[in-house]
Amino acid sequence: MKKLVSVLTIIMLSFFTFVACNQTKQVNMQKVRVGEVTHSLFYAPLYVALQNGYFKDEGLDIDLQTTAGGDKTMTALLSNGIDIALVGSETSIYVYNQGAKDPVINFAQLTQTDGTFLVSRKKLDSFNWSDLEGSVFLGQRKGGMPQMVGEYVLKKYGINPQQDLTLIQNVEFANIANAFASGTGDFVQLFEPTASIFEKEGKGYIVASFGKESGKVPYTSFMTKESYLKDNQKVIEKFTRALYKGQQWVDTHSPEEIAKVVTPLFKDTPQDIIVKVIERYKNQNSYATNPILDTEEWNNLQSIMKEAGELPKEVPYDILVDTSIAENVINQ
């Protein structure tokens, strides 16, 4: 009987010790509020890092919010509604050129090409960019990276967006897909998985990739205010380390394996669509394999902005980009 009591005592002590340790871990978890400009398979490395527990391993409790549109995402960051923003790097340039006292710093890159696709309402036996001449093109928000890349590619093929077609840019980012589905436009610029879903449902047909046509750019990056970066160096380092693990995992695994991990975050998207989208992004090297945003990409970004007439003043790379933490994480 004494032996039984001793065994039960040990079991109870072990249980309470486990609970206490677990509670200590929970208390020590640091909450980080992250705003993503849209929820898309374009951001698969982030979702892999979340689903595989890489952020938790670093002691970070990620509160991920979808803040639809670059302007809303940046407003949330500047007003302290979020700690880190995942949005196009052009937004940091806009904020800086507006004279921000606490500029927004890009510290880790997630995607390195445009993530949108040109979708045609009609099924075309063959596609040529000249097919857009005289058409109604439902584009993205003026001043945003998708719109600027869209215009950059059109000009590349000799099409003047303001003269050679009817360009619609006054539709809210979150409503563009619905507007096209309701009959607006002959062509539309869409992110995945919406583009592939439309194709599967016969609402439109993917005819070209803006990512393939525009080259490497820091299309979406993680950024934060300079003050937050200064006061939370360890947090940013942990965040970047977890992200890098997610990027490396995506780089070394198949679309099917990646789809299996991220599916819980896209419950309304069919599995075959998820696999197809990830495969498409991997094939065009949209996913950055490390968090470093390099000088060439930054310069290409500003060239595209300048071409679109959206660059008030060029901003040197080292003012709004800090790769020191990313480099340290990679070299560890």
UniProtKB/TrEMBL annotation:
Gene3D superfamilies listed in its UniProt record: Periplasmic binding protein-like II
Keywords: Signal
Signal peptide extent: 1-19
Pfam families, per the entry: NMT1_2 (PF13379)
SUPFAM superfamilies found in the cross-reference section: Periplasmic binding protein-like II (SSF53850)
Cell location: Periplasm
Family: Belongs to the bacterial solute-binding protein SsuA/TauA family.
Protein name: ABC transporter substrate-binding protein
UniProt organism field: Ectobacillus funiculus
